[in-house]
Specification:
447 residues; 16 helices; 6-stranded antiparallel sheet; single chain; 4-stranded parallel sheet; alpha+beta
Length: 447
């Protein structure tokens, strides 16, 4: 029997057995509150099972992500040597200055995430979260819900499967990068750094507990509690060996002065920071446009060029200029103004779906306003990609099958994939912060 047929039978059992199972729904919601599976206070996994991938599909998307991550690394180094490429990315002067500082370990991203839409066995990566990917602990937390659903537990017992451990690979990657940086402590101290009160704070607590369970001293710290004595960066009485940067670079530069302890320690080469300021280059959404620009094909291997062509949508930083699209030269502004059904406009550097305007869901005047706004600060335009809708068992008062858009966002740790986010939504923005949901993922071994 095909995997899809097995999953269909499971869905039928779940809906039949739990259609009005208010006690189970309450138990699942309570567990999400306890486990921190929340977005703005709401449980964000209203699903009765995980998403199942075949081993062959998982390997295919993982390989594509790893090849593309290598291409982004190549582009980053090339941009630091070529002002023409660098100009395509839309960095600020401060971002460029700190990107040019050698982080003192190889590779661009210690941890990253590529966000893909899936469509009938194919996929395209729409964004590269190269700077500070969130959601690394979601898999381990959402998995805990599955034990409360007997049909899912039975299904997993009967079918050979594998579940990823991104939090484990994160720590391994941090320690590996620390060693390459020259760190020698057997159990280095780890500072998880972001602003007090951010929505991802529960994730930091889970990571702190995990790091400490592995023998590391770990603290969660606001950037403003850091101290530097020209040799060692500290949080209180703790020397910072591994600076796990979760604070966003552009927000940090906007808020903090140039003599901030972190910036001084980084300029002096006295802190291992993952991810480094250099990751801002591939993190910019315009980086996809550089990879998709034939003028820079000479930078990449044949395998990278194939992955770029198959799995990245056409993307460009918006400005009044000619561009190549589908084999012809167009005035960029005229092209997107007259073809709004084919495009989406995004801020070059933002998160959570903020500032995105979907052409095929906008009126002509809304689209024109978005184009005008994009000329005052960096935005990109990206071609529409096909997205598959899937039927998924959800609950909200009752259990129903709901047709949802799905994406899969693989995590990479030093260029190697380990799991990822599975997000589902009835809306075009498949994003938890924008009201979507998230399921655990399970890889089923091919029959």
């Amino acid at each position: 029997m095909k995997i899809s047929d097995l999953v269909t039978l499971l869905d039928q059992r779940l809906i039949r057995n739990h259609h009005n199972d208010g006690s189970l729904f309450a138990e699942l919601n309570d567990a999400q509150h306890e486990l921190g599976i929340l977005s703005d206070g709401r449980p964000f996994s209203p699903f009765l099972r995980p998403e199942f991938f075949s081993r062959s599909f998982y390997r295919r998307i993982a390989r594509a992500a790893e090849v593309l991550a290598g291409a982004f690394d190549v582009m980053t180094i090339a941009a630091l040597e070529n002002d023409e490429i660098l100009a395509e990315l839309g960095l600020t002067e401060t971002e460029e200055m700190y990107a040019r500082i050698d982080p003192r370990y190889p590779g661009v991203c210690n941890s990253s995430r590529l966000d893909a839409f899936i469509s009938y066995g194919n996929f395209k990566f729409l964004e590269y979260n190269a700077e500070t990917p969130a959601g690394i602990t979601d898999q381990m937390q959402i998995e805990k819900l599955l034990t409360k659903i007997p049909e899912v537990k039975e299904f997993l017992d009967e079918n050979p499967h594998w579940m990823p451990r991104p939090h484990v690979r994160l720590l391994q990657g941090l320690i590996s990068g620390y060693r390459d940086f020259g760190g020698r402590k057997e159990k280095p101290n780890i500072a998880i750094v972001d602003w007090d009160g951010v929505s991802t704070y529960t994730e930091f607590e889970i990571l702190q507990e995990y790091f400490e369970s592995q023998g590391h001293r770990a603290v969660i710290a606001d950037p403003n509690v850091l101290e530097y004595d020209d040799e060692v960066l500290r949080v209180g009485d703790m020397e910072v060996d591994i600076f796990y940067k979760r604070v966003l670079i552009h927000e940090f530069f906007e808020r903090e002065p140039s003599d901030h302890p972190l910036l001084r320690a980084y300029r002096d080469g006295n802190v291992f920071m993952a991810n480094s300021f250099r990751t801002k280059l591939p993190h910019k959404k315009a980086s996809l446009g550089v990879l998709r620009n034939y003028r820079y094909d000479h930078l990449f291997t044949k395998e990278q060029l194939t992955a770029i062509e198959l799995h990245l949508p056409w993307t460009r930083l918006i400005s009044d200029r000619p561009v190549g699209f589908e084999g012809m030269t167009h005035d960029l502004l005229e092209l997107i103004r007259h073809e709004r059904e084919r495009f989406i406009i995004k801020p070059n550097d933002d998160y959570g779906g903020s500032g995105i305007v979907v052409g095929w869901e906008s009126t002509e005047s809304e689209w024109d306003n978005a184009i005008e706004a994009s000329l005052t600060s960096p935005f990109v335009v990206q071609e529409r990609v096909p997205v598959e809708k899937v039927w998924f068992p959800t609950y909200d008062g009752e259990a129903v099958m709901e047709e949802l858009l799905i994406d899969f966002d693989p995590f990479l740790f030093r260029g190697k994939v380990e799991g990822g986010l599975v997000r589902l939504s009835p809306r075009s923005l498949v994003n938890v912060a924008a009201g979507g949901g998230e399921a655990a993922m399970v890889v089923l071994e091919d029959f």
